[in-house]
Amino acid sequence: MVSKDIIDLPALLSIGQVCATLFAGLGLLLTARAFRKRAQQDRQEILFRFWAEFWKAEKPVKLFYEIEYGHFKYTPNFHLSRDEQALDQLLGHFQFLALQYKTRLLRDEDLEAVAYFSRRIFENAEVQKYLNFLQEWAVQNSIKKHPYADAINLNAKIKNLYQL
Q1: How does 129-154 read in b/e, with b if 16+ C-beta sit within 10 Å?
Q2: 66 neighbors 120 (Cβ within 8 angstroms)
Q3: Which one of 44, 101, 131, 140 has the lowest number of neighbouring Cβ atoms within 10 Å?
């Protein structure tokens, strides 16, 4: 038989509880690290898909370069044109990205990857004319929200974060 003098059962239980707590804490830290790593990978995947879709779309990319070099003009003949479709597709890419940001799938630091393109598009005077037209059209048609409101707001956030 084991003598009570040799084993202090309450002290042994205390040591066991401390060890269990330490292992549980270590497990939580490792799990949190894995979640952070997975979230970072998910954010990178969102940006990868954004750029893959962006560069795959030939007409919006062509229109981006027209905007970039000051050749894009918003005229009365713009509506129902292929350029309008391309601009809507271009703006739609950024609207999608803005929704990802709005739902916190992207963080502020992730926006640096799109800052230059966003600012070149949304701060272009001719694009601004089209966005203003859409705002008026939305009001006239009792639509409460601008079709690209989230993208416009995202660009304002980008402008505050990243000076070009």
Answers
A1: ebbeebbeeeeeeeeeebbbbbbbeb
A2: no
A3: 140
Cβ 122 vs Cβ 151: under 8 Å: yes
One digit per residue, pLDDT tens: the chain, 164 residues?
555 556 666 765 677 777 777 777 777 777 777 777 777 888 999 999 999 999 999 999 999 999 999 999 999 899 999 999 999 999 999 999 999 999 999 999 999 999 999 999 999 999 999 999 999 999 999 999 999 999 999 999 999 999 87
DSSP state of 7: -
Q: Please state, in angstroms and as integers, the Cα–Cα distance from residue 157 to each residue in 36, 54, 63, 121, following that order.
A: 24, 21, 24, 14
CB proximity list for 32: less than 8 A, separation 6 or greater: none
Q: Is the pTM of this model over 0.70?
A: yes
Q: Mapping DSSP to helix (H, G, I), strand (E, B) and coil, where does residue 8 land?
A: coil
Write out the DSSP string of 45-74. Answer: HHHHHHHHHHHH-HHHHHHHHHHHTT----
- The residue type at 61: V
Per-residue tokens: 2: 């084991």
